[in-house]
Amino acid sequence: MTNFSKKFIVILCLVLAICGLQRTFAQNQPIESTKKPPVIQLAMSPETPDTVFSANAYFTVNLLSTFTADKSGTLSYVITGKDGKKFGADTKHIKVTSVCPIDYAFSIPSMPGGSYKINFTLTAPGFQDTISNTFIIKGQEVRQDSVINMTLTPHSEDGVFATNASYTLSVSNTFPSAQPATLSYLVTTMTGKKVKADSIHVKIGTSGVSNYDFNIPAVKPGLYKINFMVSVPDYTDTTRKAFGIKPQLVRSQHAKPADFEAFWQQAKAELAKVKPEYKVTEIANCKDNRRVFQVEMKSLDGLVIRGFLTEPKTHIKNKKFAVLLGLPGYQVPLGPMYGTDPDIAIFTLNIRGNGNSRDVINVRRESYIVLNLEDKNRYVLRGAIMDCVRAVDFIYTRPELRHDNIIAAGGSLGGFLALATCGVDPRISFCSAANPILCDVRNLPHEVDWPLIDINEYIQTRPGLTMAKVMDNLDYFDGKNFASDIKCKTLVGLGMLDNIAPPDHVYAAYNELTTDKHLIIFRDLAHEIGRWYNVYEGRWMRDTFALF
Amino acid sequence: MRLLKTFTKTLLITLTLFIGLQSRSYADGGFPVRPGRLLLAPSVSYFFANSAWDTTGMPAKRYPNNGKYSSVGVTFYGEYGISRNWAAVVSLPFVYNSFTASNIPSKPSSGLTDLETGIRYYLANIDFIYYFSLQGTAVTPLYTNDRALGYGEEGGELKLAVSGSGNMFGRSIYFNASDGYRQYFGTNGPWQNRYSGTFGITLDDDFQNQLSVTGSGILSRSTDKTFSPILEANKDYSFFELSLSYGHTFTDEFSLFATAGKFLTGYNTSAGNLFSLAFIYRLDYK
After folding, report:
1. Which of A412, A413, A542 sits opposite B21 (nearest CB)?
2. Surface of B (94-153) touching A: CB under 8 A
3. Among candidates A331, A346, A528 on the partner chain, residue whose Cβ is nearest the Cβ of B10
């Protein structure tokens, strides 16, 4: 072969190679450059590495498909230890649709304490992907110390007694020998003033449980705290409870301002002058069979507030829905509320300075409750309560909503807002207030830490502002003062151990109600309510609205 | 800030709606009827018996000469919620009865029987769990001189019913219990105690499938002690029936109930078995 021939062959090979490369590149390039291939995006919760679980780990895998067609497949996990040893695995069949994300929850069976890695693998036709995370199982803590275990059982389901409170204290001993012990109790007022105390000396054996009955001497009607203590030479433990003696007789010692109603009439008159300029925008809903709308409107002082309305989809012509007006807890942003109830529309409202209604008022959490507290006409809650009234205005503009079947409901600040709104707006037909704060406000000092801490700090930053002046202003925002104006059926929930909405304060408001009312007491809960409250609320509401 | 976490928890717990009263039988209970709701329940039933209890009661004796009584019924049941407390109730049955035996020719009889029109009043509830209602019903015969279709007499009934719902075995359950006093106003017109008790349980979380068991019976008293294998003709009789129903909800508006029942005890009446299918339509007009 001549040199020319050799050069020709080399050049030819280079040309062919380049052409081949270009062809290969040409095959791949347009797809990469013009359009991303469809995928199923995986995300997991918790996403933080090394999340600590006590015994069982829980993960939720979120799938979002960009395929145009539905896809079925499997989602499986494998758990391995630090040394790579396999500890568990499971597989679920999954189906993903385009656009709508879907969650798959995994409850991992109990595992021994230690660090683990979990890999989730999604396998679907033409697609496979894996995400992983690490987590820690804390495991059962084995308490090595010897203790006296104590269980206190009030002789009343709700902690309310007619005359004398009584309890059974059950104790057991994990010390190696019998222990001489002192069992004692201390009854105080809700502000901590000592009322009664007593103690007995016992010897607690090493086996079984010993029960001791305590009958507390009669005290005046009211709410009380009671602490039970067990003391052995090297050990002391305390159990805290609260009880009521004829709490239906509890009344606030502080009168409602004479111009209370006039004050709120004035606020409503000012609100009426603000054009609502409602804007209703439907937004996509992938969760359930409801239509979801973002609602925007102008409220007192021209502030824009927003909320979300969800309505069940229905083919029934002219169907009208009862309405749940959901009111927010303290600085809790509310989103759309979903659910399968076919009869109820739900309007969740973000009052000014809350959630997506922070265009003008956007303060630190601690500052919200005291914002403009020095002036009752500028105090943030005046506007917030009028925001709730504006929400009722909005409900009244919607022909598909039953204007005579509105329930205002909330917990904590939401419970207060429910009381306040129902007090100033007779268009609401059912009130549900769980753990309402700011009731009997003049008794808040010495009983609660919050919001007194923030109020005291605020007073220090405002020359001339005093606690007396603050209380004068807060009289117009006292839940018990609204309560006496409420005309609709009202459900109230309280926790006997609540240190934010203390039971005597909630009772002071509840006892002011002159309408059809019901109180559900959770003897062993603090600032929360139990499931029974929601069950009862749902049943009473359905009966009231004749949604049989 | 721990307080804020607590607030969040409280709010999330509080803003939770509970759907109540979803699992129920389709009619004839103490539950109130939603205003504007029309419930239509056409049903078809087949009853057959080849034995009967005589005036001494147990045991049932076979009809002589291979006698067999059968009855096919088509009933149109409807109720409408007039207001929160009041509901109208109507029941219009059509039957085809026949008794056959080897020694006598079959003589079937068919036609509309007793029209029942009533009004139900929602009396009260206990904790919105137990509901009580009182129902007054007028009985109007839609035939003349055909004892195979009924007494041919007008009558009236007053019935007290209680219903409740809750949870048991991790499932939603309900019960109905009712007791009614019925008086026919004609000669020898019997008085009757009609009672019924139902316990139902859902089989899934979506309230789509349910099972229920019902015990029901009639105690009828009259000076006319005559026995006829035709069930509708007897005036002095009693029986107790146990039945099992399966209900399936296809949509919010449409359900189907299939029932099988057996007469367990009785006297002066046929000892038979019953099968029925009921088609339930719920239509809301408000």
Report:
1. A542
2. 125, 127-129
3. A528
B118-141 pLDDT, tens digit per residue, is 999 999 999 998 999 999 999 999
pLDDT value of residue B82: 96
Rounded CA separation B215/B244 (Å): 9
pLDDT band at A35 (very low <50, low <70, confident <90, very high): low
Q: B190 versus B57: which is more confidently predicted?
A: B190
ipTM of the complex: 0.82
The tens digit of pLDDT for each residue in A464-475 reads 999 999 999 999
* pLDDT averaged over every residue in chain B: 86
Q: Which residues of A touch B286 (CB under 8 A)?
A: 320
DSSP designation for B233:
G
For chain B, list the strands marked E by DSSP.
Answer: 37-54, 57-62, 68-81, 86-100, 109-112, 114-126, 130-141, 155-168, 171-184, 191-202, 209-221, 237-249, 254-267, 269-284
> Of the candidates A521, A436, A157, which has an alpha carbon nearest to the alpha carbon of residue B10?
A436
Candidate from B10, B17, B125 with C-beta closest to A341: B17
Q: What pLDDT does B1 receive? A: 34
Q: Give me the number of domains chain B comprises.
A: 1
Contact between B10 and A348 using a beta-carbon 8 Å cutoff: no
Domain, as residue range, for B130: 2-284
Q: For position B167, which CATH number holds?
A: 2.40.160.40
Cis peptide before B64 (omega within 30 of 0): no
Contact at 8 Å (CB) between B190 and B152?
A: no
* Mean confidence (pLDDT) of chain A: 89
A400 near B CB under 8 A: no
pLDDT greater at residue A317 or residue A214: A214
Q: Do residues A290 and A339 touch, judged by C-beta distance below 8 A?
A: yes
pLDDT given at position A517: 98
Chain B CB contacts of A492 under 8 Å are none
Contacts of B38 in chain A (CB under 8 A): none
- At residue A467, φ and ψ (nearest 5 deg) are -65, -35
**pLDDT of A14 over the 80 cut:** no
**Which of the four pLDDT bands, split at 50, 70 and 90, describes residue A99?**
low
Inter-chain contact B17–A331, Cβ cutoff 8 Å? no
Compute how many other C-beta atoms are within 10 angstroms of the C-beta atom of residue A29: 11
Question: How many degrees, rounded to 5, is the angle at CA A87 between CA A84 and CA A91?
Answer: 110
- Quick one: pLDDT band at residue A15, thresholds 50, 70, 90? very low
Say how many CB pairs under 8 Å bridge A and B. Answer: 117
Beta-strand relationship, A114-124 and A127-137:
antiparallel
Domains belonging to chain A, first-starting first, are 40-137 (2.60.40.10), 148-249 (2.60.40.10), 263-544 (3.40.50.1820)
- Put simply, the answer to whether B128 touches A542 (Cβ < 8 Å) is yes
Residue A292 reports pLDDT greater than 90: yes
Is residue B81 within 8 angstroms of chain A, CB to CB? yes
Question: Minimal Cα–Cα distance from A545 to chain B, Å?
Answer: 9
User: What DSSP designation does B149 have?
Assistant: T
In this structure, the dihedral spanned by the alpha carbons of residues A499, A505, A511 and A512, taken in order and rounded to 10 degrees, is -140
Which residues sit opposite B256 in a β-bridge? B248, B279
pLDDT (mean) for A388-409: 97
Give the whole-number percent of chain B exceeding pLDDT 70: 90
Residue A267: DSSP 8-state: H
